[in-house]
Structure formats: structure tokens, C-alpha cells
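Thread: quick sanity check before group meeting

JM: Hey all, I'm pulling together slides for Thursday and realized we never actually wrote out the predicted structure for the chain we discussed last week. Dropping the sequence here so it's in one place. If anyone has concerns about the input, flag it before I start.
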Amino acid sequence: MHQTAIKNDWKKSTLGEKAYEKREIHQITNKKEEFFYLGLEHIEQQNLQLKNIGSSKNVSSSKKKFKSGDILFGTLRPYFRKLYRPDFDGICSTDITVLNAKKNTNKDFLYYFLASDKFINYASQVSYGTKMPRASWKILTKSEWLFPPFNVQKKIGIILSNYCKLIEVNKRRIGFLDKISQSLYQEWFFNFRFPGYKDIEFENTKLGRIPNHWLAPLHKHIDFLEGPGLRRWQYRKNGIPFLNIRTLIPNDINLSKVQYLDSREVERSYKHFLLEPLDHVVSSSGTIGRISTIQEIHLPLMLNTSIIRMRPKSNKVGTWQLKRFLQSSYFQKQINAFAIGVAQKNYGPLHLKQMWIVAPDEKTAQLYEKIVEPLEKLILNLVKQNKNLLKQRDLLLNRLILGKIDVSKLDIKMDDEST
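JM (edit): ok, ran it. Output follows.
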């Protein structure tokens, strides 16, 4: 028994009585056929969200088939909590178990039950293998749990699904706003169709044909600082978090992957490496050119080696123009051209001092910032909203699955579907 129920009508059942595994195999033989493909690399850790979607054209050998509404449960290292419920058909890695609910179980409830801390911890405990532990569905089916009546399952599923829908809507809005802001940068600083462009003369430069006097050394307009080289013996279990390449994700920082330095050591030796709101950080080693923007919710936070902090230091390059420049081919091509190393590419401040930036006149720069700032700040606010929604969903999820919150009397509109 793994739970304590608050209601007498919660009944004990094995997981195998509530869910079943789907074992339909797809053998990839025809590369002309294309299907959506999901591997563990496409599913975010912990968040029940997708990073992106792969293609069957890029994989080989046998894969598992899944249908829209199936539950995909990552059995390799189950503590990563890689679960997803797609709204499309496709194929997936054999490290993913494809599941669905039996007739006496609500599909949404089952999905969130499998994502609960209690179940993930159990799946991790009974996994086999040392370096690459795997959960066995056969073993998991024999575990006993308390399940609420079907109508309570549906209510719990609806409540938690609504959180996921809000998160998904925000992600789409972020993607849409991101494209608008990128398009504006492209229009103004690649196509050079900005207010008053017809009166501007152009010249050929290292970055292509651009308006006269817009080409400038990067260091003239950008203050950049590379993080210190930290050693493992300096790491602590808590204190001031510092970045690494894995923490950098679009428009956000993954704070679950940070490590820490003692706060007294930071105050004494590394204070100047502390980050501020709206700093941009970019990776300079390994996967070079990853960009993230720092928010207040990320702080305190410190640089580390292989991460470079960027700040505007002139009126010709604003915060948001800098962000889009760092993402643009202007910058990405330069860092790839200057990067050294075979196994692992890297560049640093010495290379940045030799790079160039498109720096318009102050009037154009300030007008651009005025136009895009509301879009960029809305993106950051939506990112912040989603972080809060994820925390609220998971807190509620674990209490609902354990029966610590009684929803049986809640008036929730439910459809007539059996599952």
C-alpha cells in the first residue's frame, strides 16, 4: 500500500487493473514515409511538456506506435519524470512505454497519477540497472494503490488538465510573440526597412551591405564578461547558484540544473560575476551560441566558465536589439568562424573583441526599443506565468492524487465519455 485515503470509497487496486501497455511495433523500412517521432530527448524533464518533435526520417530500427491520447511514459531513468500525452499519432523510442486506461479508469486521471511524486519515486526504487536504471512495466503493474471512484477521477483529471491547457496556450503565445519580434529585427536590421530608410545611403561591409556608419566593433557598444573557472571542490549543496550550459533554455533559465557556491565565497571573490535583470547570457563552449535572458525570478545567480554575460553600453544598441542580434546570423556566423577546438568548440573575450555589430543611429535604436519592448516583456511575463502554473499544478497534483483534497462535491461540468 502506497497511499492513505481520506475517503472510504477510495478502493485498493493494482496498477495492472487500471492501465495496460500498448505494444504495436513499427518497423522503419521506407524512408519516404514520414511520421512524427518522439524520443526521450524530445520530452522535457519534470514538466510534462514537449521540447520539440522529431521525424521518422531521422531514425531507424523498430519503434513503438502511439495514438493521440495515449500516455507516453519514459522508463529509462524514471526519476526524470519524462511523461507526455500527445494529441497526434506517431512513433516513439523503445525507451518509452505506451500506455492507456482500462474501461474503469479515467485517462486524464491515470496520466497525472503516473506523474505523481509518489508513483515516480516508487518506479525509481524498483528500477533495475545501475548506470542506466529502467522501470519495468511488468513489475509496476503488480503495485497496489488507492484509486477514487470514477467520477472523482474525472474531476481530478479536469482540474489538472485545465492547468496544462493554460500552460500550452501560454507557450503558443510565447512562440507567436517571439516570431513577431524576430521578424521586426529582420525587417529593420537585415532588410533595412525602418522608418526613414529611403533617405539612407548604404555601404559594403564585413557583415554585408548595410547603412553607412552602422558597422561598429562589438566591444564598443557591448559590455561582455566571461564567467570564472570554478572547481568541483568549490561546489556546495546550497548557497548562490551558478549557470552551466544545460541551464540555458529559450527565454528562461532551468534552475533545476544549477549548482551552488558558498555565499560568503561569492561575496569575497566573485561578486562582480553576479547577474542582473535583463542581462543576456550566451554559451561559449560546447554547444555555442545558446541565448537566455535573466529575470528577477532567477536571481541571485552567478556566471560560470563557458557562459558570457552581455549588456549594452551605448545608446546605439538597446537591450532587445542586443538579444535579437545575439540570436541572428550576424553573431552566430561570427562565433562559429572564430571558435577553436575540434572535439568541443569554444570562443572567448579575445574573439569577441574582433567581432562586429550592426549599431544604428541613436534615434533608430531608441525607436526600435520602444516598439519591441512591450512584446519582449510580455514574453518574459508569460514565461514567468508558466513557471508559476507548473509549480501550482504539481503541488495540486500530488495532493489530489493522494486524496488530501476532497473534490467529490465540487460542481464541475463533465462530458459523457466513459474515460
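AS: nice. The longest helix spans residues 150-189. The two ends are 25 Å apart (CA to CA).
JM: adding both to the slides.
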